[in-house]
Design a protein that fits this description.
The protein is mainly α and 750 residues long. Helices cover 52% and strands 4% of the residues. The chain has a domain of 518 residues. It is a multi-pass membrane protein. Belongs to the nucleobase:cation symporter-2 (NCS2) (TC 2.A.40) family. Its main location: membrane.
Length: 750
């Protein structure tokens, strides 16, 4: 009956019987039309925006004052815009009803078969979608099955499986999926899709897709959340920030009070340099601190022949030598950055160079790590096991919505094992009749006590007197150890090491920029960041931290696990570090951590650095014989060549502990040029694993032929992108008041 009544109505209206298509009135574009007219026209004519399962991406909402907004996609031809955030001006051809552009844009063609198949299907809707009112209609569009969408569409639109899409680096909300995934099938980690096969070169200039960060670079969630996330960020980096002095100060002959003072100084310098880097460096949320890149050279210098036999003021003599060498190396690094030379050097630094260099930084301590941690296995083994359990087995456990085992693995495990060590000490596990742990082993006359002195020193929680001797309030100040001393041999070492530190930072800049969902910085911004790191290392040399200040490699891992990439949170955390540095008892408390416990944590961190270094190989073709050969040769010789130089030290084994012998090759190496300073510098540099790895990888990667895709060449943003993309400029440009004075410095991205 319903069918009959409808046919009668059709006859009355003059519409012939039978299943005929409704007549669609033509759409004539006007320059003064209202987007609502497009909406009503679509409803009136029955126009459907979804064409044969094509995946659509909505237009990101922008400032209404901005002009020339466009979707950035041409679904008709299967092209995606590439370059800056602002799209070319789009006009509708009044005759053909299609879009035309007023300025050229760099586009990436899709494979021919797909574009031919999609062309006929998408002709009907391309003009409307690219028209001035297309944004509103597209937001109302119905859902398409993501399984039917071509693979290329996902690759270009940056879909991550959750329905979100990105166009030209701007976040845009796409249509939600039709069905919510099963919670039972949900894995513990968020699943990321590798949107770029190994055989293809990404056309997005390094941008990787939708962000999974809780708070992005410029968000302001409020004062209290910022404090919380700032503390969280630094607690996850606690091992890298505070455990370096626990290694170098005792090796330099310093007292427990000296260790507490150096820790406080390191907290102050780390806070100051992090704020400086956040405002005037790369402007990424990266913590600056005492990098492990400088730890091995410091051990080489302090174990040289002229310092190993000192008895009076040994700590201050070595510290002043390190200060002078760090200042000279930092000046070289600042010149490298602010002169723009780093922008040129970036063309030669690629993942195949960065990966073995960073990995060798962690491998440099394989002969020091467990031999030192093994001095008290009842503490070190539980500590290492707890770290592995927290970071691997319990990483998915969430308590009140927080994955505390994954984020706070280091401070939580240290607290538990430290308390366990306290109960062992209080229970008398390390009490030996007639033996006092506060008496140096060299002054112990009893053979029985001398045998246990080493165990008491490394295992007892009350062996350190830092808490009793430290002041409640103490402000670290420059030249607190005396005027730095400058020698050519140590200065040459630190100049080369600062270059290696710069390579390390380049890899961290690139990885961190992709994690925070921003496009990679320009070469000028990278140069500016390296220059600022050099200036920060000058401050570290003046204050006397015993190490240079650079971007910590573990930053990328911290951002990934905390899911917070907020610049203000890092700055607030840096302010809290500065306040803690004024409390002498804070440094004393940290200095009281048993050395075996500290080195156990460092074993895990050094292994993590090796893994982070090798993870940069993902940007190249990991299956390429060229790449795996270069990386393998670099890593092998980074271990073998230093071992060759370290065998020329017949007297060192009688003076130094076994774990310090690999760092004593500078005074007894095989190189003899006639200049003692030059001999010392060359023998020292070639006994450093990271220097050898960098030199071998740098030479091979830049001389062995290979395509850009195969090498995984870093793709940095251009100066033109900074002009065209306001969000990119906001992320990396200097503050306005500061930028006024640096208009001339185009080479550093000012």
């Amino acid at each position: 009956m319903e069918g009959g009544s409808s046919s009668v109505k059709q006859e009355k209206n003059g519409v012939p019987k039978g299943p005929s298509k409704p007549k669609i009135e033509p759409f004539v574009p006007r320059t003064d039309h209202n987007p609502r007219e497009l909406k009503s026209w679509a409803k009136r004519t029955g126009f459907n925006l979804n064409i044969s399962g094509e995946t659509t991406a909505s237009v990101s909402e922008k400032d209404p004052n901005e002009k020339n907004d466009s979707a950035g996609f041409d679904l008709e031809k299967g092209l995606s815009w590439r370059g800056g955030g602002s799209s070319p001006k789009i006009e509708i051809d009044p005759i053909l009803g299609r879009t035309r552009e007023n300025r050229g844009a760099e586009i990436e063609p899709v494979s021919a078969p797909r574009s031919v198949l999609r062309k006929n299907e998408s002709d009907a809707g391309s003009s409307l979608r690219n028209g001035p009112g297309g944004a509103e209609i597209e937001k109302k569009s119905s859902i398409v099955d993501p399984l039917l969408a071509p693979k290329d569409d996902y690759r270009k639109a940056g879909l991550n499986g959750n329905g979100s899409a990105h166009v030209n680096g701007d976040e845009s909300s796409a249509v939600p999926p039709t069905a919510e995934p099963n919670k039972e099938n949900k894995v513990e980690d968020e699943v990321g899709i590798d949107v770029f096969p190994e055989t293809e070169e990404p056309s997005h200039r390094g941008w990787r897709g939708p962000s999974r960060m809780k708070y992005s670079l410029r968000e302001n969630p409020g004062f209290v959340p910022l404090i919380y996330y700032g503390l969280q960020h630094y607690l996850s980096l606690a091992g890298s920030l505070i455990f370096v002095p626990l290694v170098i100060v005792p090796a330099m002959g310093g007292t427990d009070k000296d260790t507490a003072t150096v820790i406080s100084t390191m907290l102050l310098v780390s806070g100051i340099t992090t704020i400086l880097h956040s405002y005037f460096g790369s402007r990424l949320p990266l913590v600056q601190g005492s990098s492990f890149v400088y730890l091995a050279p410091a051990l080489v210098i302090m174990n040289s022949r002229e310092y190993r036999n000192l008895t009076e003021n040994k700590f201050k003599h070595i510290m002043k030598e390190l200060q002078g060498a760090i200042i000279v190396g930092a000046i070289f690094q600042s010149i490298l950055g602010y002169s723009g030379l780093m922008s040129l050097l970036l063309r030669l630094i690629n993942p195949i160079v960065v990966a073995p260099t960073i990995a060798a930084v962690g491998l440099a301590f394989f002969s020091y790590g467990f031999p030192q941690a093994g001095s008290c296995v009842e503490i070190s083994i539980p500590q290492i096991l707890l770290l592995l359990i927290f970071t691997l087995y319990l990483r998915g456990v969430s308590i009140f919505g927080h994955r505390i085992f994954r984020v706070y693995a280091v401070p939580l495990s240290v607290t538990i094992v430290w308390a366990y060590a306290f109960f062992l000490t209080a229970g008398g596990a390390y009490d030996y009749r007639g033996c006092n742990p506060n008496i140096p082993s060299s002054n112990i006359l009893s053979d029985a006590c001398r045998k246990h002195a080493f165990t008491m020193k490394h295992c007892r929680t009350d062996a350190s007197n830092a808490w009793r001797t430290a002041d409640w309030v103490r402000v670290p100040y420059p030249f607190q150890w005396g005027i730095p001393t400058f020698h050519l041999k140590t200065s040459i070492i630190m100049i080369i090491v600062s270059l290696v530190a710069s390579v390390d930072s380049v890899g961290t800049y690139h990885s961190a920029s992709l994690l925070v969902n921003s496009r990679p910085p320009t070469p000028g911004v990278v140069s500016r960041g390296i220059g600022m790191e050099g200036f920060c290392s000058i401050l570290a040399g003046l204050w006397g931290t015993g190490s240079g200040s650079t971007t910590l490699t573990e930053n990328a891992h911290t951002i990934d696990i905390t899911k917070v990439a907020n610049r203000r949170a890092v700055e607030l955390g840096a302010v809290m570090l500065i306040l803690f540095s004024f409390m002498g008892k804070v440094g004393a408390l940290l200095a009281s951590i048993p050395q075996a416990l500290a080195v156990s944590v460092l074993c895990f961190i050094w292994a993590l650095i090796v893994a982070l270094g090798l993870s940069t190989l993902q940007y190249g073709q990991t299956a390429s014989f060229r790449n795996i050969t270069i990386v393998g040769v670099s890593l092998f010789f980074s271990l073998s060549i230093p071992a060759y130089f370290q065998q020329y030290q017949p007297d060192s084994s009688f003076i130094l502990p076994s774990y310090f012998i690999p760092y004593a090759a500078a005074s007894n190496g095989p190189v003899h040029t006639g200049s003692k300073d030059l001999d010392f510098a060359i023998n020292a540099l070639l006994s450093l694993n990271m220097v050898v790895a960098f030199l071998v990888a740098f030479i091979l990667d830049n001389t062995v032929p290979g395509t850009r895709q195969e090498r995984g060449v870093y793709i940095w943003s251009s100066a033109e992108d900074m002009v065209n993309d306001p969000s990119l400029a906001t992320d990396y440009s200097l503050p306005r008041k500061v930028a006024r004075f640096f208009h001339w410095a185009k080479c550093v991205g000012a």
